[in-house]
Structure prediction request, 399 residues.
Amino acid sequence: MKRILFVDDESKILDGIRRMLHADRERWDMQFAMGGEAALQACEAGSFDVVISDMRMPGMDGATLLGHVRDRFPSTARIVLSGYSDGGLSTRAVPVAHRFLAKPCNGAELQATIERVCILQDLLSSAELRQLIGAVGELPSLSSTYTSLLQAVQDPNASIQQVAEIIEHDMGMSAKVLQLVNSAFFGLAQTVTTVQRAASFLGMETIKNLALASETFRVFAPDSRIPQSVCESIQKHAHRAASVASALPVAPKGSRDVTVLSALLHDVGRLILASKMPDKFCAVLARATERGCEDFEAEEELLGISHAEIGAYLLGLWGFPNLAVEAIAHHHRPTRIPHSGLDSSVAVYVADLLANELNDHPQDSTGSELKESDRDCLEKLGVLPRFAEFRELALHSSN
Prediction:
């Protein structure tokens, strides 16, 4: 039985949640705490799978509480339930909360959010990885990108479009601005899946606060054993894959933006491993070189899971669209789930493959240099006959 802790400084609010979720008492062990201090005492007495807290509370507010939960109980999912849209509060909450819900929140939305978080926790069988990923509040950025962003947000002549273009070149920054803009703090009617739109909604002042006055954006300081070039290549490959995905004829057409987003963030798990588990990251690189295999195959051997599932788990916790989470989780093994033509998951796999192929075999217009495993996968997905067409589109997208 999943243990859920609800935190608020108003007893009427807690009573309302108790009544709203009364039918779920058989499947969830629900506890209620008045204020941050009481919540921390409850966490010390017994671990919780999910903590859902109000933002504005006297004494210890929601951001402070969830910061303590992140540091002391990292495997616990952290959700903000707030009726305020204060910009300063939102930037404080982003590094410590996985999800954001508006107050008042209807029972169906609250149930669905808790269910999705619990399902994600069950999918990641390793307790060590759950704790590690649960503690991630931000993704590392390259120092050159971060410097460019700082210069732009402090330049009175810089446009929001210029700032968005800088953010688009960085997986970590892109993920955070999309997490924030789709949170309850902004109350948008539709999910935003492009960095350009996200930056426009957030505005220059909020992005400036993220860059200067919060811990949301952090420069990547890699372990001395990890060359800076490795991190740069991860970011470069992500941007190229997104460019390729934007050129592919994805079906349905309405899923194009989320497909491009998925391609941009498909290797987020590699950033997590490099920044949070450098020993294992280095071991994976060594194993892949020794065996002559792909990095994700070495990860599966050493960790029992690959960066694909690790990245998908984090983005799922952060509330990214299910379609994106699914595409990222399966981008190395797309045949694990059913498909219909060139859907988002297949397109992200193809974009990842083509981004590598254009780099490794720039003259191979027919796909003759493809690995047998990739050829078999494309055939099972039913898109092998279209490989030359896709490659031509990818070639034009990167020019």
In short: The longest strand covers residues 2-8. The longest helix spans residues 228-247.
